[in-house]
Amino acid sequence: MLAERLQVIEPKEKVAGVSPQWLAGVFEIAGGMGFSTYESKGNYYAYPYVHFTDKDQVLINLFRRTFGGRVIYKDTSSEWRIEGESALAVAETLGKFAPSRREMVSLFFKWEEATVEERVEVAREITASYRTGVDDSDYYHLVVDPEFVAGVVDARGSFYAKPEGGPRINSRQFIIASRNIDLMEALRSLYGGNIYYRERESRKEEGDNMEIWNWTISKKGDMINLLVFCHFHLRKKDPAISPVLQGLN
What we know:
Layout: H1 2-7, H2 20-29, E1 32-40, E2 43-54, H3 57-67, E3 70-73, E4 78-83, H4 86-94, H5 102-113, H6 116-123, H7 146-156, E5 157-163, E6 169-178, H8 181-191, E7 194-197, E8 203-205, E9 208-210, E10 213-217, H9 220-230, H10 241-247
Antiparallel strand pairs: 1-2, 2-4, 3-4, 5-6, 6-10, 7-10, 8-9
């Protein structure tokens, strides 16, 4: 039954207006999936979870309305988190559009069919690097999908534009910060820009790779190509986008 289900991870219909391509874009560049374990009265239990953290409430509220879960409010950001069987709906919606999440999605479905005792063992199968076997070639067919790219931009894209002389743009830059260097390499190959290593924010600990990279676009033509391509599918509607589009015409 598990093998049959994994073979049928096809694109789902939009869930309350959220397309699988857009959702995959969000969780390929940000967010997280994993398992939590706990002990109670001498017995061990494990359950899957999905979470997403952002300073902006737009996506946090969208995920809460669409999938349920809870919101944890922090000093400078909020975290949306959904756990247990409810997290399976998110994993299934991602479908085949999230290469770096394939292993985790498979383990989520394996957990669903396991006994309580087996579920702890499933949680322990997670490899140290959740991107095992993935490289930039896995993303080439995705970065030409406007909904997928919009998910990436919504999750971690930042636009900076300073108007000078009306709608014209004096200084412009687009930045995405993420651990997913393979996805950013695929984006750069199509949309241009440069990738920089953020040494100050990065760290490497045993079993935890926290290397952070910046994909930055500064050229006028590259920026407008990206914006025009995905603008229709953006959820945040960053107020900086409109003046950039006007100023780059």
